[in-house]
């Protein structure tokens, strides 16, 4: 199957793959830790190279969102803004993404995004705060340690509140 470039993965197979990984792991914070071990934007092919070639973090975010479906991620990203703030709303990309699979998908997104942004951005913290729609896990402090921002659990929705000033900063990769 892996040697067949035209092979596809059904939603049911994708769910089972994630389920098997979570069930066999002894790391309850797998989503946070797996992305810190190996994360390179270039591994995403054209999507990653498009993101890295952007001029500012805001441009990179817009490009990421525009081509997000190419990543096959477990979550969807919806940008929002008001007069005083900008944020990303995270929602499940598939019907099966709930409970521990949802938490894994959110954690994987947060950790890999943090690593990528830290690599592309010379200074500044783009995340002002994080609101998560699930209860705090036993390792909740790892979120704040990794992202260096306030983290709130049991919220109405999952949102990443962004700093608009940092979004205008130039990227070191452009």
Q: Summarize this, please?
A:
The protein is an alpha+beta fold.
Short descriptors:
single chain; 5-stranded mixed sheet; 41% helix; 174 residues; 7 helices; globular; 15% strand; alpha+beta
Helix and strand arrangement:
Layout: H1 11-24, H2 30-37, H3 46-52, H4 57-66, E1 75-81, E2 86-92, H5 99-120, E3 127-131, H6 141-147, E4 151-152, E5 158-162, H7 164-167
Parallel strand pairs: 3-4
Antiparallel strand pairs: 1-2, 2-5, 3-5
Helix pairs in contact: 2-5, 3-4
Give the distance, in angstroms, between the N- and C-terminal Cα atoms.
36 Å
Strand content: 5-15%
Question: What integer value in Å does the Rg equal?
Answer: 16 Å
Structural category is alpha+beta
State the helix count.
Answer: 7
Tell me the helix content.
40-55%
| Strand tally | 5
Description:
It is built from 7 helices and 5 strands; from the N terminus they run H-H-H-H-E-E-H-E-H-E-E-H. It is an alpha+beta fold and 174 residues long. A hairpin with a 4-residue loop joins strand 1 and strand 2. Helix content is 41%, strand content 15%. It has a 5-stranded mixed sheet with strand order 1-2-5-3-4.
């Amino acid at each position: 199957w892996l040697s067949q470039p035209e092979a596809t993965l059904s939603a049911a197979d994708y769910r089972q793959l994630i389920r098997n990984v979570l069930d066999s792991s002894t790391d309850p914070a797998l989503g946070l830790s797996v992305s810190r071990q190996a994360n390179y934007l270039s591994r995403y092919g054209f999507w990653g190279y498009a993101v890295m070639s952007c001029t500012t973090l805001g441009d990179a975010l817009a490009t990421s969102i525009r081509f997000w479906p190419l990543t096959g991620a477990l979550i969807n990203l919806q940008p929002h803004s008001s007069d005083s703030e900008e944020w990303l709303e995270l929602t499940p990309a598939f019907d099966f993404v709930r409970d521990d699979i949802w938490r894994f998908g959110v954690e994987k997104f947060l950790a890999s995004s943090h690593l990528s942004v830290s690599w592309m951005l010379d200074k500044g913290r783009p995340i002002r705060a994080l609101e998560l729609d699930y209860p705090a896990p036993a390792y909740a402090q790892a979120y704040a340690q990794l992202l260096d921002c306030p983290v709130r659990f049991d919220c109405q929705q999952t949102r990443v509140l962004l700093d608009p000033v940092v979004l205008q900063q130039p990227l070191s990769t452009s």
